[in-house]
């Protein structure tokens, strides 16, 4: 989509010498007057403009308009890998079994939609790696239930909750001594040396795309947390680490932590010294697509309420383009007490977008349910029974749950500093502990 005003237009905003009814004289370089509305139209069109992503790095480098920018981005990516000692360049030998690589060009944009930079990422084609018989590349991630537990502890103890994102985490993960991984030189870079010998890369650290990269990064961060920083690993979960005044949860390169103020400050300083300055470091605002807010207790004295929710309103807005979805009315409850879907009932013929995307909608609702909306748990369980052959009853229930989300809005889980200090369990009539 082309902007309404050419991108090469030079615009200058002149400071007002006087303020009369809020009018600011905005002029172009040729002296032409522009109204505030014209400026707004220009900025809106600029934000909506998108530079198309090239299909491959060859197309990017041959781009007559942005070829030089893509070349600089490619060199910057290679320099980043060299500075981090990710690989060394060696002459290819017949006994080496290099795997392929891919150079991915991508245009990055800021949160407000304006252009940010040209980005090139070099990745390994890990699916072509030969698989060892005893290979184990499992990398654990923080369970959402443990994240909620950390928030509850922070509220109970009057701690602040923080998060940080480690930059280029995989590139800081060491390979094991017995691992020898070779890559063909990525497209766009020098393929042969001065003598005409073909070159390849011998990896020293993990690279994006390798099957083992998540596991190697987990090994690296766990070793640092336990051996170097002195935290204790949780006996029941491999992603939770703790001490008397600090709790740390690891989800790949996203770190969630809480504790006493001094302990949190020391942790951020130490992890920055080891892995570089993190991004998004500070009070937890958004974690795993969930919104987190901390509100001071009316009585103060280092007490906080924590609110946790998924932005269901945004999800509803994104899917409102479907006419069937948009026509669903708001509801007060997610499921009728008398709901029943019989297996003998015929499946609903797929005639509309709502039914065609039934499994996708149910998956999204299950995500909300397990993260921050337990009020739709029963309805989601009933909807899951119809994933293979949804009946008319299932479709009507899906509409009702969507209508309930429309009517209830963004509801949050509230974690309060008040409450019991002991764990409380509940049981139903059959003594089945829940």
What can be said about this structure in brief?
Helices cover 31% and strands 20% of the residues. It is of the alpha+beta class. A six-stranded antiparallel sheet has the order 10-11-12-13-7-14, with helices on both faces.
Describe what this molecule looks like in 3D.
- This protein has about 425 residues and is an alpha+beta fold.
- It is built from twelve helices and 18 strands.
- The strands form five sheets. It has a six-stranded antiparallel beta sheet, with helices on both faces. It has a four-stranded antiparallel beta sheet with strand order 15-16-17-18. It has a three-stranded antiparallel beta sheet with strand order 1-2-3.
- The N terminus is likely disordered.
Quick tags:
434 residues, alpha+beta, 6-stranded antiparallel sheet, 4-stranded antiparallel sheet, 31% helix, 20% strand, disordered N terminus
